[in-house]
Amino acid sequence: MTNMAQEDERNAAIRKMTELLRAGATMLAETCPICNAPLFRLPSGEVLCPIHGRVFIAKSEEEVAEASVISTLSELEKTACSALIQLINAVKRNEMGLDEAARIAVYWLDAIERAERIKDMIRLRKAMGQERKR
Ligand SMILES: [Zn+2]
Asked: Which pTM was predicted?
């Protein structure tokens, strides 16, 4: 990433933080587990990162870790999906043979499948934990 892009990103983050504060949000002591930006709590009670915009309703260390794993896996899945699209396009443009594309696609599909399985495991564990607390 160039310095210019980083600068833009930082400015965008600061703008977003200002918007959140204007909207009545409060800055929290907790930081985003991905980018370390301070998290904000909206008047509605939702917690979000000014950069990722994702809601982390993380109450414990464990929940922060789980939220971080889930968003990393989601990021991986997004990357895998765009890699698959690129493969399809390469085949369409005759830049790559179908055999080669299929061989690479298997790795990405495998990554998506594993990511989904891990996310399911985390969700299941969470559901079971909530069951116990009741
Ligand atoms: Zn973030």
From this structure: 0.52
